[in-house]
Amino acid sequence: MTNVTRLFWQDTTVFDGTQELPEPMAVLVRDGRIEALQPMKAFEATAVEGYTLAGSGGVMTPGLVDCHTHLVFGGNRADEFEMRLEGASYEEIAKAGGGILSTVRATREASEEALFDKALPRLQALIDDGVTTVEIKSGYGLNVADELKMLRVARRLGEALPVRVVTTLLGAHALPPEYEGNSDAYIDLVCNEMIPAAVAENLVDMVDVFCEKIAFSVAQCERVFQAAQAHNLSIKAHAEQLSNLGGTAMAASYGALSVDHIEYLDDAGIAALRQAGSVAVILPGAFHTLRETQLPPIQALRDAGVPMAVATDCNPGSSPLFMPSLMLNFACTLFRLTPREALAGLTAHGAQALGQNELGRIAEGAIADLCVWNIQRPAELAYAVQPGRLRQRLFQGKLSHGY
Ligand code: DI6
Ligand code: FE
């Protein structure tokens, strides 16, 4: 059906992706986009043909944008969870061949079908919590065939469920065992084979790296960015998560859409983000799970006007947490974001971290991904951790949850 007109009209409070609007607004959706956003009174006077979705109360927000996930993976790491509870650190486990590499073994063994079947309910959990756009990274294959297998699963997930999937090649996530002692040769593989193969199959939208002592150096990550840009792919980085290597400033100098984690970010890194217009993605789920004590420099980012996004980072090791609304709560309680900042982080700023300015907003011309929640004020979404508050969800103008 083309040219379907829908009225979405309630005396709801509207959070537009940045702020709460001063009065109830009605939204007119045509062909999957927001055509008009008007005060209720003006809207009532306009006669429009079409389907009407009516109700009262609640809070409307943009569909949530989870801009950083690793939700396709094999196996799980409950054993390492237990080891960490007994005192082992994330880095120690990684150095002993566990951590990311343990998930690499399980992911390589899994068929594409098995990976898809395991990822589907994880993605459904995000959708049930209001997500309409999700970024999914590879990074547990670490060879051409298995990285492409992961990206294919990510693409298929977006075809199977009413959600937009943005894919990211994270070949430079960890050094696979067969390249032990030869990390530059592995970076050659990422640059010269993995990226071109993913591009040839149209499987990749962005390229990410893990810039860390237990992963890749600033110089190695820089080579990956050069290869990505040679293929016109956007870039982003995991940086300053466990230590400060300066990956943020380097990524910003290449125009990274975002730099993620950043607990150890310093003033030079913040200045670089501001200058490049990059988004700072904060991941309170990983901070919580790893019982990290170094807080990201929130006040300095705020003072510098760097947009902050919030995401689940859902993955089997450092953030086995598949609930975006819990991240709103964590961002406030652990990082002292305001509820408004946290919600902007999962909507407008999450979209910005994906280079998608038509998403994560309730504004004329934006894609009509919308959620209506059974709450009275936007701050309640961050305040309480309570599944089941999603009343309605529209994906590209079509109702996919509620009635
Ligand atoms: N940082 C993270 O938090 C995830 N990847 C990364 O580079 C963790 C991935 C994992 O532990 O499996
Ligand atoms: Fe991550």
Tell me what the structure shows:
The structure is a single chain. This protein is an alpha/beta fold and 403 residues long. Helix content is 38%, strand content 21%. It has helices spanning 40-45, 78-85, 90-95, 100-109, 112-128, 144-160, 183-200, 218-230, 247-253, 267-276, 284-289, 298-304, 324-333, 339-345, 348-352, 379-383; strands at 5-10, 13-14, 25-30, 33-39, 51-55, 59-62, 64-66, 131-137, 164-172, 206-211, 234-239, 258-261, 279-282, 308-310, 370-373, 390-395, 398-401. An eight-stranded parallel beta sheet has the order 7-8-9-10-11-12-13-14. Strands 2-6-15-16-17 form a five-stranded mixed beta sheet, with no helix packed on it. The relative contact order is 0.16. The mean pLDDT is 94. The structure holds 3-[(4S)-2,5-dioxoimidazolidin-4-yl]propanoic acid and fe (iii) ion. Fe (iii) ion (FE) binds at residues 68, 70, 238, 313, 315. 3-[(4S)-2,5-dioxoimidazolidin-4-yl]propanoic acid is lined by residues 70, 99-100, 103, 173, 210, 238, 241, 286, 313, 315-318.
